[in-house]
């Protein structure tokens, strides 16, 4: 039987192989374990196998998990990433509970996350979600508007801009996957040139991880290949 531990080992192996194959530095690609819809005991198993960074998509479910682990397993010292769509009336629990947010796609949401960050906490580490697929994907800001949003975020003291995230529309071939990821990589380089603290390019999921690493991903977001298929839809 496949366990969470053996799945994690397998993915780390694949990441290493891709780093080597594409001339990427060793350990330049981090693994974010996407635990949405999965129970706390699955997260405990992953933590016991050494995983520390977890991604959640739904506000209520995510906050319950963050608080459960703070109360019962603070020794794991988990870093929590919010990666789902953000409604502007749901920013407070995100800003109060998470360490990272990958899915900022408008200035209003950035402003609210900034204003609602509890005093004394490290700034929220944030990524701009970019839509590289045009009509085919509704989430994320168009490529042309990303630099403007980056400069709005830079002005907010309780947010720290770390990079970009994208979820390209599912495409059939490796070449098409690579094309979408390369577009994001170009934008990442442009933003990095302006903001030296920018270091994170969040792209690649269970089905397109290799192409993402070839194109320069620094953080892959993997759910299914670690925890198995989800019982309910990932769409909100
Ligand atoms: C669900 C989800 C993932 C993980 O997808 P898998 O195909 O299960 O690896 C990654 N990123 C985001 C934003 C997601 O919603």
TrEMBL record:
<keyword id="KW-0663">Pyridoxal phosphate</keyword>
<protein>
    <recommendedName>
        <fullName>Pyridoxal phosphate homeostasis protein</fullName>
    </recommendedName>
</protein>
<dbReference type="InterPro" id="IPR011078">
    <property type="entry name" value="PyrdxlP_homeostasis"/>
</dbReference>
<feature type="domain" description="Alanine racemase N-terminal">
    <location>
        <begin position="7"/>
        <end position="230"/>
    </location>
</feature>
<dbReference type="Pfam" id="PF01168">
    <property type="entry name" value="Ala_racemase_N"/>
</dbReference>
<dbReference type="GO" id="GO:0030170">
    <property type="term" value="F:pyridoxal phosphate binding"/>
</dbReference>
<comment type="similarity">
    <text>Belongs to the pyridoxal phosphate-binding protein YggS/PROSC family.</text>
</comment>
<dbReference type="InterPro" id="IPR001608">
    <property type="entry name" value="Ala_racemase_N"/>
</dbReference>
<feature type="modified residue" description="N6-(pyridoxal phosphate)lysine">
    <location>
        <position position="36"/>
    </location>
</feature>
<comment type="function">
    <text>Pyridoxal 5'-phosphate (PLP)-binding protein, which is involved in PLP homeostasis.</text>
</comment>
<dbReference type="InterPro" id="IPR029066">
    <property type="entry name" value="PLP-binding_barrel"/>
</dbReference>
